[in-house]
Amino acid sequence: MAGAGGRREALAAGVLQERTRLAAELHDTVAQGLTSMHMLLDAADQQWTREPVRARQLVRQAAAAARENLEEARRLIHDLAPPELDGSSLPEAVRRLCAQTRGARFRLEGEPRPLEAAVEGAALRAAQGALANVRRHARASAAVVTLTYQPYVLSVDVWDDGVGFDEADVMSGPRRGDGLRLLRRRVGHLGGRAVVESTPGGGTVVSVRLPVRDPA
């Protein structure tokens, strides 16, 4: 009976971990994509009469975001790696993310090498989520994403010079810091650690450390 109970507990733990992983994936893909589309369409509605050309541009951007979001949702359903990593390396994928954010630069430290899909996926999502926050909330003029390859650790650091925030206020707000909580949970499942340092008016640094297998 004890053995059966242990198996049930292990199964329940596995189910909870998978639900947590999917919740984090949905937050970083579907939820962020829908938020982006809403903002673009709202801006288009406000400018439709005054600046119809700009409004149509915004609608086209929203349509492109919808297509990307649909692809993300399909890949989640099939439980595959992030589509951004299809046919490209992690540094290339992070570089593309930076190119999509005004004022963001990419830095690479160390010698890149292929890593486990779960580790690369978590690193990419960390950069994606941090840059999404830079675009939506930080009002930053500059941001730097640094991807660092070490023998036993993969690091992702995202710095911005934006308005910053008080983490205690964010975690107790209406959304209760969902992004930060899910980031830490995803990284924690892989044995890693995520640290966020920010002060109002002082910018923000998101640092993620993920263990990787012995290169030998």
Polypeptide structure, described:
The chain has 216 residues and is an alpha+beta fold. The protein contains six helices and five strands; from the N terminus they run H-H-H-E-H-E-E-H-H-E-E. Strands 1-2-3-5-4 form a five-stranded mixed β-sheet, with helices on one face. Strand 2 and strand 3 form a beta hairpin. Helix 1 packs antiparallel against helix 2, helix 3 runs parallel beside helix 4 and helix 4 runs antiparallel to helix 6. The mean pLDDT is 82.
Q: Total helix count?
A: 6
Number of strands: 5
Helix content: 55-70%
Which ranges are low-confidence, i.e. pLDDT below 50, for 5 or more consecutive residues?
none
User: Main sheet, how many strands, which sense, barrel?
Assistant: 5 strands, mixed
Radius of gyration, CA atoms, in whole angstroms: 19 Å
